[in-house]
Amino acid sequence: MQKLRVCELFAGVGGFRIGLENTGHYEVVWSNQWEPSTKTQHASLVYEARFGPENHSAVDIEKVPTSEIPDHDVLVGGFPCQDYSVATTLNSSKGLVGKKGVLWWSIHRILKEKRQKPRYLFLENVDRLLKSPSSQRGRDFAIMLKSLSELGYAVEWRVINAADYGMPQRRRRVFFLAYHQSTQMFQAIKERPEKTWLETDGVFAMAFPMKNENKAFETFDLTDDLATLSNHFNKGGNKSPFKNCGIFIGNHVFTTDAVPDYNGPHTVLEDILQNGEAPDDFFISIDELKQWKYLKGAKRELRTSRSGHQYHYAEGSMVFPDALNKPSRTIITGEGGKAPSRFKHVVPTQRGLRRLTPVELERLNMFPDNHTKLKGISDTKRAFFMGNALVVGIVKKTGKVLFEKIEQLSQTA
């Protein structure tokens, strides 16, 4: 089977591309990365330095005509978590459109306008997507599922914590795969029991084995139109009806809570450290240590807001320094810089306590060493990239199983 052609949106520094192309089964034919909050497109510069400028776009995806995007088999991307509600246009012929600036609707627009639609979608987001917004738990995900169904796709999703499958970082994200109705994957989901697909036969089940532990499977339908879902789905509900894995096909939701079932090797924080190579300015001085301990420690104190209002503030302590015999905590975008912080990682070494280096942060996301190293790109910016990135190992494993499953179904057709 030939390589699958990939369009990578919201590409960052290329996590999806690395994971998929490392399987040998995928080829990125077009990519887009644009950061609205910065004049210099730092992530795009890194992307071009690693993969070349050909067929790479560094402009706002909302301004890119669909006609400029080449046909592709797989559309991938880790799109921003935003408010996915819809709005009715005055021109009824256009029907429903997403709110401007909400980038999910750029994906939707491309899928809608492409005459030759991508056969597969592979997308990633923070796991709170399944329970957003707080006033209508699960509404945003319901809108996404329904809009994909209207475009001819079946969807399976899974919340995966990379550390549960031996990877070096505790990073929990929701991944979902969508299959166009023209594919054998769509037919396979349609013909097999949903429980079987989720537990054993599906791509996520094969890539990341699960056990159900007698948790209930819940089913419900999304028959309302997008406007009704946007306005009324689960209004006032305390909990989202979407569990951490599930299938959506033909307006029907089938969902449950999966428990990881993994007995393989594990990589821990100690395994990725550059001990002996870390620059001096990553070490914490004795003068700074008191502030680090305060920020990491438990607190119960009276504070005053900017308006002069006094309030009681309390928070628990964090492990300090970070445990070396476990996977790391989740990297955040503020991981870089020398300033003491509650959330930055600090590791013990023979020379003393220090922050994590850019290479170590890359390793926690399973990127190649110095992937983000480029003239004019600061260590703080490199840390920011990794706070926004995904764990490449999850993409690679999913991509490998997806290709094998497609190949298997094509041979039995």
Largest sheet strand order: 3-2-1-4-7-9-8-12-13-11
CATH class of the largest domain: Alpha Beta
Helix content: 25-40%
Main sheet overview: 10 strands, mixed
Distance between the termini: 14 Å
The CATH H-level homologous superfamily of the largest domain = Vaccinia Virus protein VP39
Look at the structure and give the mean pLDDT: 93
Shape: globular
Tally of DSSP helical segments: 12
Kindly estimate the percentage of residues that lie in beta strands according to DSSP: 15-25%
User: Low-confidence parts, pLDDT < 50 over ≥5 residues?
Assistant: 88-96
Question: How large, in whole angstroms, is the Cα Rg?
Answer: 22 Å
Structural class by sheet pairing and helices: alpha+beta
**CATH topology-level name of the largest domain:** Rossmann fold
Tally of structural domains = 2
CATH architectural label of the largest domain = 3-Layer(aba) Sandwich
Pattern of helices and strands: EHEHEEEEHEHEEHHHEEHEEEHEEEEHHH
**Quantity of strands, as a count:** 18
Protein described:
The protein has 413 residues and is an alpha+beta fold. The chain folds into two domains: 4-263 and 391-412, Rossmann fold (3-Layer(aba) Sandwich), CATH 3.40.50; 269-358, no CATH class. It is built from twelve helices and 18 strands. It has helices spanning 15-21, 42-51, 104-113, 139-150, 184-191, 194-201, 203-207, 226-232, 286-296, 358-364, 379-388, 392-412, and strands at 4-9, 26-32, 56-57, 74-78, 86-88, 96-98, 120-126, 153-161, 172-180, 210-211, 218-221, 245-249, 252-256, 259-260, 299-304, 310-315, 346-349, 352-355. The chain has a ten-stranded mixed sheet with strand order 3-2-1-4-7-9-8-12-13-11, sandwiched between helices. Strands 5-6 form a two-stranded antiparallel ribbon. It is globular. The two termini are 14 Å apart. Residues 88-96 have low confidence and may be disordered.
